[in-house]
Amino acid sequence: MSANVQSVSTPRSGENSWWYLVKIVTGVLLVVLLGIHLVVNHFIGQHGLLTYADIVAYYQNPIIPIMEICFLAVVVIHALTGLRGILLDLKPSRPILQVMDAVMVIVGVVAVAYGTWLILVIKSRG
Amino acid sequence: MSEKWNIILKVLRQKQGETSHFDEYKMDADPDEYVLDVVERVWAFKDRTVCFRHACHHSTCGACGMRVNDAEKLTCITYIREVTRDGGTLKVEPLRNFPVVSDLVVDMGSLYRRLEAVGARSVLPAPEAEIEKPPSRWSSDDEQYIRLADCIECGLCISACPAAATSSDYLGPAVLAGAQANGLKLNPELLNMVDSEDGVWRCHSAFECTAVCPSFVDPARRIMDLRTQIFKERVGGLFRKA
Amino acid sequence: MIWRLKVDTQHNRPSPSKFWNWFNPVGRQTSGWAFMLQRVTALGLTFYLFLHLIILGQLANGPQGYDSFIALVSSPVWIAGELLVVAAAFLHGLNGIRIILTTFGVSVTRQKQLFYILMVLALIIIVIFGIHMFTA
Known about the structure:
The complex is a heterotrimer. Chain A is an all-alpha fold. Chain A has a single domain (about 15-125), classed as Fumarate reductase/succinate dehydrogenase, transmembrane subunit (3 helical TM bundles of succinate and fumarate reductases). Chain A is built from five helices and no strands. In chain B, about 30% of the residues lie in helices and about 15% in strands. Chain B is built from eight helices and nine strands. Chain B has helices spanning about 35-45, 80-85, 110-115, 155-160, 175-180, 190-195, 210, 220-240, and strands spanning about 5-15, 20-30, 65-70, 70-75, 90-95, 100, 105, 125, 145-150. In chain B, helix 5 packs across helix 8. The longest helix of chain B is centred in the C-terminal third of the chain and has 23 residues, at about 220-240. Chain C is an all-alpha fold. Chain C has one domain (about 30-135): Up-down Bundle (3 helical TM bundles of succinate and fumarate reductases). Chain C has helices at about 30-55, 60-70, 75-105, 110-135, and one strand spanning about 5. Chain C starts with a strand and ends with a helix. Chains in contact: A-B, A-C, B-C. At the B-C interface, strand 2 and helix 8 of B face strand 1, helix 1 and helix 3 of C.
């Protein structure tokens, strides 16, 4: 009983309007960027970029690596903040939430760094 | 002479510390009577140990909310005809997401405490109430009239909400709707309360609350309005400061 | 007749262990199905995103590694899996637009109709992708 009263008076701030804003801004960007990504990878040429040579050639246009790196960052942020929202529904304790947040930051940074490295490697092979 | 249907009423039974089970009762029912009437007849003539909550029998007190054939219903206004057929079964269970006290009775204390915490009003001045066709202009004379708030605190929305199933701290649709009616602009404390993990952001737009609400509160629309209000205060606030 | 269920009086309280209830379709409205769809596709797409990034690491191994990998996943079964990802992306994205609109009070009372319109749109796109992916 008392636990309930307390939860009313001191709401937990694990999520707020800024988190949600990040989710919807990246979401809108993704509709555009993922749309481009899917069309490029399935409709360019016969069936999209299917060979190693095609991909390397595609990345020689300077705008493509920039767009792909932005796309990568946006999709990783959207995925991780979205996953965080789902996990918050499971009411994690504060210490667990802190660990969760740290893991997500690390995963996000590693994913974007790794992807950027891969994109630059592909571009350099042209 | 009214119509007579034979139905099987399955009631989820559960006393403190016991495992739950369904009891079945063969009942004669008029398709134009209400589910609550049939439950009451079980208690009156078949089994005096069946526990259920009821008071006004005309959708004002919000006591008789139950799960009827897997959907939340205010049983005092739910016709038998709407939920089963002649020879059919009627499965009656307690509301979800509230602890069971006995059989169909759940403890809704958390809902009432939260409604109080957000300052949800049971009556509003007439000009503040949401009505279908408001006059183009309220006169100062209208201020003296008050109107009952639409929410009857029956808890159906919290039972229907998928997000409420996992987090006991979620304020829930009825409470957020109560907060919305107060407005956030002059309530920084309320703004902090609903702009939180257990406030409007726990809502994931399943709109189940609005579907089951027997009193036209439309909690989902009010939650969405709260979100718009929050963005106006938070994001708009940045520009006002600058 | 009596059915015995193995639950106690606590079973009705909200609990993280009841996450399956998110995906329980019994008694759900159209919008409830939309919620389930959004959550299932969210989890699926997140899983695929990281899988995709790891697999693309093959590109660093040069043409031999990557082209033999592509040859491996060019069978209809793999293409069907790929189409599933494309479908999830469009369903999630288009339903996401509905969620954003309703958040700002747009079409809240017409969200069900909006859902149907967006899902028809998604279906058309998925069929176009499907036809293209399965035909030479």
